[in-house]
Amino acid sequence: MKKALILVLISILTLASCQETKKEITSTKMYAVELHSFAVPDDAVTTHLNLDIDVDFDTQVISGTASYDITNNGASQIILDSKFLDIKDVTANGVKTTFKLGKMNEKLGQSLTIDIKESTTKIAITYNTTAQTEALQWLNAQQTADKTHPFLFTQGQAILTRTWIPIQDSPQIRITYDAIVKVPKELMAVMSAENPKEKNANGVYNFKMEQPIPAYLIALAIGDIEYKGISNRTGVYAEKSMIEKVHTEFSDMEKMVLAAENLYGAYDWEQFDVIVLPPSFPFGGMENPRLTFATPTVIAGDKSLTSLVAHELAHSWSGNLVTNATWNDFWLNEGFTVYFEIRIMEALYGKERANMLALIGRQDLEDELEALKETPNDTKLKLDLKGRNPDDGMNSIAYDKGYLFLRTLEEKVGRTEMDAFLKSYFKKNAFSTTNTEDFITYLNTNLLEKNNITFNTDEWIYQPGVPENAAIIESDAFSNVEKTLQNFINTNKIDVDVTAKWTPQEWVHFVRNFPEDISVDQMQKLDNTFSLTESTNSYIAMVWYEQSILNNYHGNNVDTNISEFLNTVGRRWYVTTLFNAFAKAERKQEALEIYKTARANYHSVTANTVDEMLGL
Question: Which residues sit opposite 273 in a β-bridge?
Fold first, then answer.
């Protein structure tokens, strides 16, 4: 009896121990605390999306079903994100189930809580988009380059994918996806996936993305577009009237991919294509895997603005391959990408051009630091965006302070060691997410301690402003530009022969650095000599228009050109720069008059920012 009792007690204790171990495993947190998603992925998480949608340009509605494979850790519910969606029906393992939409949050939307069982491995949500859907921009024919057919594109970053697909909209949740997209027969659909190269007869397109990506990288564009290859893995999409210009402008894409691979390892997405969208696209570019979205403002005719393509390509490693776990860690996406972009540009076009790009970024950073002087915590690399829109962190701090940190680190440890470290970092974390703290640990272990190097990492990441040991970037070309500008200010004369071979970057540096007391007569002379008001380079035009507004220059119909620019270009950086200049110059009423007609041409990303800027 005693022996039997002992065996029973041992069995009970073993069972209890196993249950406790199982409880510990179940409660292990795999995901970071998420401030900008309602999802609880440690309980139940999506792993694959099957999207089946119809796109109706007449009603401007997408309707269909988002079906998911899920990993269920014994949960009774799974939570997705939804904003301004009309949820029609939900099933779990093919059987209709109950669901609940939570209270609307202005920034985050609503939680979509779906009742499931422990055995549930699949869910499906039937839904429609609505007129409030923020990710979508529906364009009529007149808003396109060819002006013959309508156009539609999506913009998911940072948390807008939830406005056109019910989804777990967190960067740390990566999924694969398939899609069936039905569009009008005269149009072609493309996605951040395997894409068609020509239109088909029935307007039904099938897509597959086999590598897991975060929700913000799911992208769709539909229009009367064509494809033209550059190499067997690179090419461009654009409207018919643009395709040759785009192909010529981006003809170095394969060279860029090769330069990137030589730096940090194989390109893991098979295809690298770029689609040039209508001018209302709110960003310079968006790094949607396999299909970068780009603004037509970079088509300058001389490849002078193609660093944008290098930037989006670099995201194929930093951002797409290794993704920030939360938007507080956004600098891990963008600081690394700017560093990588400039290294690509140096490899292809030389150190001087690379340094010019870096110095332009350095000035952007100084402008941002000045703009944020009342909120110094926003100048830290590691942010705290609790209760805020993650868009608030998408500024020069993440991009240019992040770059400067890495460049300073490179100068401290040496380029050879830096490159080996970054290559190993991308390889180890491929197709996963990371956060700032994990990066610091990896940095300390695999670079600093390994080489017995001391570096002020915490100051760079967790303190406001720029540390004193920041790398000093120099450009002989820009030094000469500054001398030319100073000579002009002093003498009111400028040697045209000196400026004849200037690159657009040199012109940008020249115009951006006008002294505050530059006179209207001096601006008139520069305009008459160089036709700056009529510049066909969008970057030069933007900085010239900014200076014209700030200095109350009205010559050569510049006001008309500014109004036309703001009514036709939707790139948020350009638009907000000019509206901000109006505010600084106390010319807000002029800005409001322009905005009345311009706003309808902007994507919600741009319009919402300008609304806030103008107090609307």
Answer: 235, 291
